[in-house]
Write a structure and sequence with these properties.
Layout (H helix, E strand, L loop, with lengths): L3 E6 L2 E6 L3 E2 L4 E2 L4 E2 L5 E2 L8 H10 L5 E4 L5 E2 L14 E4 L4 E10 L9 E8 L4 E4 L14 E9 L2 E8 L6
Antiparallel strand pairs: 1-2, 3-4, 5-6, 7-8, 7-9, 10-11, 10-13, 11-12, 13-14
């Protein structure tokens, strides 16, 4: 038996398996699972829509996030309806890429498994908050409030959004 979760797809609430499913009545796309190093898993069944647009932009080396034309709030994770006001007027805009570390944690691993790494929640200047990792410094040096800048990297044939300490941040 397949596990299913309730989530919002467009303006319709529906039950769907944990992979993309097409039917004659509706299209339901399950949320992605992001592992501890910020890699996205389970994109095999991804369909056209906000999520695909986000990953297509990353693959092209562009950072684009949704912004609501009605309430001017930035939205992340990509979706069809603004979670702040319920509007469908979401447009793709280029954020500054600058933000601060809201929370951080160190994932401990053996050296032969890649060693320790951090997982961080980053709040962008525009207000959107997302999970990623801070690269370029030791995991224990990442601190709450640290200024960071976005960078898109290629890893295992996938484009990933990661962050580096901001130049001249004084951290």
């Amino acid at each position: 038996r397949r596990r299913a979760r309730l989530f919002k797809s467009g303006v319709t609430l529906c039950w769907a398996p944990l992979y993309a499913r097409h039917s004659s009545r509706r299209l339901c796309v399950a949320p992605l699972v992001v592992d501890a190093v910020g890699e996205t898993r389970g994109r095999r069944g991804m369909t056209a829509g906000p999520e695909q647009t986000y990953f297509d932009n990353l693959a092209a080396g562009r950072l684009r996030l949704q912004c609501c034309d009605d309430c001017s709030e930035w939205v992340f994770y990509p979706r069809a309806v603004c979670p702040h006001c319920g509007s469908e007027a979401l447009v793709w805009r280029k954020p500054s890429g600058r933000g601060t570390v809201y929370s951080t944690s160190i994932v401990r691993r053996k050296p032969n498994q890649g060693g320790d790494h951090n997982v961080a929640l980053i709040t962008l200047e525009e207000g959107a908050r997302l999970m990623s990792r801070v690269q370029g410094i030791a995991p224990q040096e990442v601190s709450i409030g640290m200024a960071v800048e976005a960078e898109i990297i290629q890893e295992d044939e996938a484009a990933l959004l990661v962050f580096r300490p901001a130049v001249g941040a004084g951290q």
